[in-house]
Hints:
This protein is mainly alpha-helical and 334 residues long. It is built from 13 helices and no strands.
Amino acid sequence: MRYNLFILLMTIFVMGCDNGHSLQKHLQEYQDRMAKVLDVEGPDRLSISLPPYPAHRDLKQNIPATSIKLFEFYNLKHCELYSLVAERNTSLGNLQLPSIRYIYERHLIDALQQCLRDSSDAKLREKLQSWKQTKDQQLPMVWADLIQLSGELKQGLSANFGLVAGNEQDGLMQSKDTLDFLIHINQNKQVNSTELEQHLKSLMNNPLPAKLWLSQLTVSEYLNRSTLWLRQHAEDLQCSGTRSKKKTEYLTNVFQQFFIEKIQPIASQMNHYQYQLGPIFKKLSAHPHLSPSFKEYIKQFNQQGFDNYQAALQQHIQFWQVLFKRCNIKPGKF
């Protein structure tokens, strides 16, 4: 309960400090200004959000419990493994968060290896070897729970607040470092709880993947509607005649002022973020130990969402290119 409350409070805090909503403000003002120039009613305002994160029941790994008999437990008193097993069998140990459980399992595997080295009894060594093999095989599933069920990862991938700002406050390198760390954590020989929790906290405080995906969806929705709306009123944009020509010139100024100068620079940074983070999410969406629902959630943004976003940008720019060519207008670069 306290953990969920902490996540909620941090969400509210981040929402209060975020300035990424300027992208949506630019898109809306871009539409409003074009409607004013054309003297028509603009498209309805949009309310955009990411689809819900997959349900817990579709993500939780089915990891069989490893049992140990009482006499076997007492035979471990000479090993660190004894205290670890005792810790796991308390009521507190049975309520471990995914990150704590992962660290515990890593420590358990190390302790099993150490106990093997310190034990000479053949039967005990056989048991230890069997337990270690089981835990080695289960570690990828424990890792999958860490990735799919951690509250910080859920927020980092599905938070519906804040958009990309297009500057260093977006925290690209921190997000990339965190995701790289989490993907390769099984290969790290030494992993401690503090380091893991710091990475999780970083992603929770600045959920760039969710911001990027929500920003792509926002740009796609706004520009698709704007392009369709402009095509419907294209007959009013003539290249000759004082009144029609002035309207086209004013609209070109709006395009330059809002799309070229405000929206496109942020979109350019979004492309950069996608190219940096995309390969990481491609690995996750193909990972054999992650659930199908989680991988599908990642794919719909990292692949289809980005493709839709690029198509929306391209179609919008093509509309203007056709208009400028027809009227022999030379706007700013785009």
